[in-house]
Amino acid sequence: MNTLPKIALGAWAWGNDGTFGGSLTADMLRPIFDAGMAHGLNLWDTAYAYGMGTSEKVLASFLKGLPRESYLVSDKFTPQCANGNPTAMADMIEMQLKLMDLDRFDIYWIHNVWGAPHWTEEVAKYFEGRENAPMIGVSNHNLAEIRQADEILRAHGLRLSAVQNHYSLINRSSEDSGILKYCRENDIVFFSYMVLEQGALSGKYDTQHPMPAGSDRAAVYNPVLDKLETLNASMKKMADKYGVAVAQIPVAWAITKGTLPIIGVTKVSHVEDAAKAAEITLTAEEVRELEALADTLHIHAVRMWEKEMK
User: Fold this and answer.
1) How far apart are CA 265 and CA 250, in angstroms?
2) What is the spatial distance between Cα 308 and Cα 310, in angstroms, rounded to a whole number?
3) Average of pLDDT values for 240-262?
4) Residue 295: pLDDT band by 50, 70, 90 thresholds?
5) Going along the chain, which residue ranges are E strands?
6) What is the mean pLDDT of residues 256-285?
7) Which residues lie closer than 8 Å to 263 by C-beta, 6 or more apart?
8) Which of 123-132, 133-142, 146-155, 206-215 has the lowest mean pLDDT?
9) How many Å is the maximal CA-CA distance in the chain?
């Protein structure tokens, strides 16, 4: 297993599922991929559910011909996409490997808790005893479900190596519930996704400049832009101190907290921002200041596909 970079780059919007509005072509995405590789951000997070294979196909076209050791692929089994057969887990994995023209994944996830722990048992059976078994992770699981997944995997000679949950300055439920502590104590990498809240914590949007109407994120964040303005203004002062953009502060915060952020990238500037954020280490006082302010805003940032991590 290659060493993980400080940040993973997320290709969920590459599936053109409407999350970000508009559509992104392979020609538009290629420079983004090239920038990531050039900056050493070579861990790519995708899933079949992102456009029913569209994200995987686009990413695969960029990986074609590159040395296998030069990149890392994080892919997922999404229970809702299973074919209903007893061999659904094997069918999904082998279909994804073929679709991406890979012989292995570096990280493989159970995408959510639908049908768990059955699917964790199935992924354990599939990879048990295999030399090229990936890191196995679970996403959108609470602490009890994470413990259960680890127990299931260990019964098959494997272990839980990664957890991926929504985690940001305005959604720290994975910390409050003890998940981050459990991960630290058990050598599990915690991947934080949506640390920028789909751009809401980037400083780009405010009450005068709302998110484009029609996208899912606009419906969620535009109604609370007045509160987000307050947090973004504080982060702007911190960003000025470090000579970076606002968007780099939430990412630096997530890294400073010991997590590995997954940053959705739809522009080259997103990659460049991520690379700069990886070089920043916030002080303990700065972390406390940001969290204290975020807590006073009482923004509900749990999305439709997830739950409170209690």
Assistant:
1) 15
2) 6
3) 96
4) very high
5) 8-10, 43-45, 72-77, 107-110, 135-139, 160-166, 189-193, 260-264
6) 95
7) 7, 8, 9, 10, 195, 196, 251, 270, 274
8) 206-215
9) 57
* CB within 8 Å of 94: residues ≥ 6 apart: none
Check residue 188 and give left, alpha or beta (phi > 0: left; psi -120 to 50: alpha).
beta
Average pLDDT over every residue of 199-211: 93
Beta-carbon count within 10 A of 304 CB: 6
Kindly state the average pLDDT of the residues 48-71.
95
* Confidence bin at 305 (pLDDT 50/70/90): low
- The arithmetic mean of pLDDT across residues 252-272, rounded, is 95
CB 29 within 8 A of CB 13: no
How far, in Å, CA of 122 to CA of 108, rounded?
13
User: Which of residues 41 and 199 earns the better pLDDT score?
Assistant: 41
Domains with residue ranges and CATH for the chain: 8-199+246-281 (3.20.20.100)
**In 10 A of CB 102, how many CB atoms?**
16
State how far the alpha carbon of 139 is from the alpha carbons of 160, 161, 309, in Å.
Answer: 11, 12, 12
**Amino acid sitting at position 66:** L
Q: Are 59 and 13 in contact (CB under 8 A)?
A: no
How is residue 68 written in tokens?
Answer: 């296998």
- How many CA atoms does the CB half-sphere of 204 hold within 13 Å? 14
Cα–Cα separations (whole angstroms), residue 99 to 28, 80, 108, 119: 21, 19, 15, 21
Q: Which of 107, 106, 39, 45 is nearest to 273 (CA)?
A: 39
